[in-house]
Specification:
Layout lengths: L21 H27 L1 H8 L5 H33 L1 H19 L5 H4 L2 H17 L3 H11 L5 H39 L1 H5 L1 H14 L4 H11 L10 H6 L3 H32 L4 H29 L1 H23 L4 H25 L9 H17 L2 H12 L4 H19 L13 E2 L20 E2 L5
Helix pairs in contact: 1-4, 1-7, 1-8, 1-10, 1-13, 2-3, 2-8, 3-4, 3-6, 3-17, 3-18, 4-6, 4-7, 4-10, 7-8, 7-17, 8-14, 8-16, 13-14, 13-16, 13-17, 13-18, 13-19, 14-15, 14-16, 15-16, 15-19
Length: 479
């Protein structure tokens, strides 16, 4: 029998195709997106409460030092993420995507909940920032297995021709979680005032992460693993004796290093733009430009709502025109529009500030819409979770999570309010180079999708299982 798959996704004559139904695919997308929503709920809360967290945990420092300390704690969680990626990623390639994603969901929710329980520095002294750091590092470790696994999970459930659209809903979950967290902080700040938020109100959003995580955990536990992984388990997850497959880490790091470098470059430009908008802009507008806390929060939230409304459309566009044109456009806009965007925000007019934020959001949505569908296609199935988790988290740790810290440090060192734009422009240059070297993956099967023999169609008058198009590779039937 031939093992050549149909690259177009069309079913060759005499073949049958395995796939889950649309209802199961929707459940898979929802379960993965809920997990990302929980992760980014915390980021939205932490970013919008950066000034308050500085006062609670670093009260003896000056305002600028408080922000640096707060963002250093924020960045510390990202430094642990590669360890989480190296632990959870290869584990997901061995025991399955579903089991690992359920555990990371649980650990993330509990860690976020724990932040809301930590006493202030005035109560327990230096132990308070230490406990905050421990909780953040626990979050970082769990998140190390979250995004790479969730992206892999959706990609392996999605038909080839709709992978961009369906994978973009992962970012919809991301932004939804961020918007929910940021909205709760904004509404509570407006309703309670700064003093009440400082005394106790800041704890409430962190405590809400536990019920949100419970919902995500329930959805993930109820699902089966991806069709591609299930079809490949006997082929690569275990050896012929049923034991742990040897050489997996070597195959991931040595065999895939070129793809990992390109993947890290794409993640760099994606996440520098992402964390600039989501994690740093509220603080930039408040502390550097002098806007009220509520004003900065609402304006940035408007940019997030814009991304929420357009991200699935961009994902669909990437299925039609390709991932590379969309990602190249985003990289080019990062180079061209960053300085004008920060110039607009410095004009002292609220409408100009809002327009500048939307300009950055337009750039970001190119990556949010096309990135999740492009990243899993860098790697074959047998090492996809591990290679993507490591690539994603190393790049995010070095360039994404440090974006607020580097931006604020550059401003403190140079006194130039355009310093964050320089960072975005440099990331855009990296993005252009990566897109130039990467292969187009839209409409094509994922690399290494397993060849699975499928029974011949039944004769007239006989019933058979209902089967649809999939990214699982096909073998011609014996008939």
């Amino acid at each position: 029998m031939s093992e050549t798959p149909s690259e177009s996704g069309a079913d060759p004559k005499g073949t049958r195709v395995l796939e889950t139904d649309h209802r199961t695919t929707r459940k898979a997308v929802t379960a993965a997106a809920i997990g990302n929503a929980t992760e980014w709920f915390d980021f939205g809360v932490y970013s919008y409460l950066a000034t308050t967290i500085g006062l609670v945990f670093y009260p003896s420092q000056s305002g600028g030092v408080q922000l640096i300390a707060t963002f250093t704690t924020f960045a510390a969680a990202f430094l642990v993420r590669p360890l989480g990626g190296m632990f959870f990623g290869p584990l997901g390639d061995r025991v399955g995507r579903k089991r690992v994603l359920a555990f990371t969901m649980l650990l993330m929710a509990v860690s976020t909940f724990a932040i809301g329980l930590i006493p202030s520095a005035e109560t327990i002294g230096v132990a308070a920032p230490i406990l905050l750091l421990v909780a953040r590092m626990s979050q970082g470790f769990s998140t190390g297995g979250e995004y790479g696994g969730a992206t892999t999970f959706i990609a392996e459930y999605s038909p080839d021709k709709r992978r961009g659209f369906l994978a973009s809903w992962l970012e919809f979950g991301t932004i939804s979680g961020y918007v929910a967290g940021a909205s709760i902080v904004t509404l509570m700040t407006m309703a309670l005032g700064d003093q009440a938020m400082l005394e106790w109100g800041w704890r409430v959003p962190f405590l809400l992460a536990l019920p949100l995580g419970a919902i995500g955990l329930y959805l993930r536990v109820k699902l089966e693993d991806t069709p591609i992984f299930e079809g490949s388990t006997e082929g690569f997850a275990k050896d012929s004796a049923g034991g742990r497959r040897k050489g997996q880490l070597r195959e991931t790091f040595v065999g895939q290093w070129r793809a990992m470098v390109l993947c890290m470059g794409l993640i760099l430009v994606f996440n520098v733009n992402n964390y600039m908008v989501t994690a740093y802009l509220p603080t930039y507008l408040e502390t550097e430009l002098g806007y009220g806390a509520s004003t900065g929060l609402v304006v940035t939230l408007g940019g997030m709502v814009f991304i929420l409304a357009t991200v699935a459309l961009v994902g669909h566009l990437s299925d039609r025109v390709g991932r590379r044109p969309v990602l190249f456009s985003g990289s080019l806009l990062s180079i061209v529009l960053s300085l004008p965007a920060f110039w607009l925000m410095q004009q002292g007019n609220l409408w100009a500030v809002a327009f500048g934020v939307v300009v950055l959001a337009i750039t970001l949505v190119h990556f949010s819409g096309a990135g999740p569908g492009a990243l899993p296609a860098f790697f074959p199935t047998k090492v996809r979770y591990g290679a993507l988790a490591v690539s994603f988290n190393v790049s995010v740790a070095l360039f994404g999570g440090t974006t607020p810290l580097v931006s604020e440090s550059l401003i403190q060192a140079t006194g130039n309010l355009y310093a964050p734009a320089w960072l975005l422009m440099a990331a855009g240059v990296v993005g252009v180079l990566v897109v130039w070297r990467m292969r187009e993956s839209a409409g094509r099967p994922l690399p290494g999708a397993p060849a699975i023999p499928v029974p011949s169609p039944r004769r007239s008058g006989e019933s058979g299982p209902r089967v649809r198009n999939s990214n699982v590779r096909r073998l011609p039937s014996d008939s």
